[in-house]
Amino acid sequence: MKLSRGRRILATAAVPIALFVSLVAWGFSSPVGSSPDDDYHLASIWCGAGIREGLCEAGDAPNERRVPATLLESSSCYAFDANQSASCPQKPTSVLVNSSRGNFEASYPPVFYGTLSIFAGPDVVTSVLVMRGFNALLFVGVSTALFFALPRGGRGPLLLAGLATVVPLGMFLIPSVNPSSWAVTSALTLWVSLLAFFNTDERKKKVVFGVIATAMTVAAAGARSDAAVYSLLAVGVTIIIAARKSWRRDWLRMAIVPTALIAIAAGFFLTSGQSAVLSPETGSDVPRTIGAVVQSTVTNAIKLPELWVGVFGTWGLGWLDTILPGSVWVTMLITFAGLLVWGFQKINQRKAIALAIVFAALVAVPLYVLVKDNLSVGSAVQPRYVYPLIIMLIGIALVGFASDHLGLNRVQLACLSVLVVAANTVALHYNIRRYVTGIDGQGANLDAEVEWWWDLAVSPMGMWVIGSGAFAVAIAGLYGYLSTGSRIAHEFAENRSELAR
């Protein structure tokens, strides 16, 4: 049945709206201070625009500021204690305390904190929820704009890489006030937009893709120094994938955007305090023999996959204390692994080199930090630090197919969709439960014996229904788009087969 123009527009708009609603529901599923190191990031945001009376005032020392106490103490009673709900007593937001806990010496790049500081106000709860909504809107807005700019046949890596990696860590981090939010958004969209920039000959489309790639480089590099490095990596592997002989005739025009992106990412990295990680002098102060270094390297290398699969839920959310059941991480790991292997059907030398580089980074980046600081997998280095690389790995693996559905039939697409929806539904329920009563609370009804919740008309159970339902609608729309192309391709193949006979 052919839909009218109005219904097509409504159906098209339903997917990004539903995705936004589901992300906002995740943003409401946890209290202020629930994302990793939120005390540091919240203080940094409130001071992101400099000294402001009542929000961020001069401290007792140059590297200190006076900020609302609740920014630093909101998670003090429940962080690392999964049995404790978020019903922590809070001081009035008018009470300021002196602290060095914040980005007061430019350890992090300034763009993320400076942008979100626009929404900082005396009402901490409202401010944080608005910030979470803004970051959710950024992810949906950029992804949607890129989807419509991309040609048919070029959207598969964007759609299916997102499908395979967004639950559960992405759904938690994207609508948060953690700088990793922007790193995740960039990891999915930067290299896709740059690849499209290289592949299109339309001047207007080139401008659109160049703008998106530039904006996502600024977002990533302006949020985290490691994300700046990942941006450099994304530019490099995209050039490898897209390189062709015709560039020789137009090399200057093709080089402008990637050169600018490299300069932006490198500039942010080199001017932030986190770049000191490259210096051997910032490692462990304990002298070690070559044998000890080799042993640390081998031990960590063997355990490194535990860090990678942590993005699918084997590690806890929040302060690593919201443990998810196997129905989440097994489901998402199957989805990821299945699509990764499926992508190997379309392999050439350039794609193989790009995949090898990203995989090498997945090994080398965390291993370098762990060995340098004399740490082991399970401490300090978290899955969210390598999450952008996981997204790039699966996305690049899915490059090279002629259609958006990547040759998957409707049954395969339906299985993937059901698995991801089920994983999100369970993960959202567990995340709300952890803060409403603590995990010692039991039962499917999240409204029973509530110890903490927002001052909202929507109950915890209602938020879970809205969030999981909206996500199901978004994935159903994605399935509808992909399966329509799959059905047409299947019918075309059958017709060709009949003609051949």
Low-confidence stretches: 488-500
Mean pLDDT: 92
Task: State the separation between the terminal residues, measured CA to CA.
Answer: 30 Å
Order of helices and strands: HHEEHEHHHHHHHHHHHHH
**Rg estimate, integer Å:** 23 Å
Report the sheet with the most strands, covering strand number, pairing sense and barrel closure: 3 strands, antiparallel
Supply the number of helical segments: 16
Strand tally: 3
Give the helix level as a range of percent: 55-70%
Layout: helices, strands, pairs:
Layout: H1 5-28, H2 38-46, E1 57-58, E2 65-68, H3 69-73, E3 96-99, H4 111-116, H5 124-149, H6 156-173, H7 180-199, H8 203-221, H9 225-242, H10 251-270, H11 290-308, H12 326-343, H13 349-372, H14 383-397, H15 410-436, H16 460-500
Description:
- The protein is mainly alpha-helical and 501 residues long.
- The chain has a domain at 5-31 and 128-176 and 282-500.
- The protein is 62% helix and 2% strand.
- It has 16 helices and 3 strands.
- It has helices at residues 5-28, 38-46, 69-73, 111-116, 124-149, 156-173, 180-199, 203-221, 225-242, 251-270, 290-308, 326-343, 349-372, 383-397, 410-436, 460-500, and strands at residues 57-58, 65-68, 96-99.
- It has a 3-stranded antiparallel sheet with strand order 1-2-3.
- Strand 1 (57-58) and strand 2 (65-68) form a beta hairpin.
- Helix 8 packs parallel to helix 10.
- It is globular.
- It starts with a helix and ends with a helix.
- Mean pLDDT is 92; it is low at 488-500.
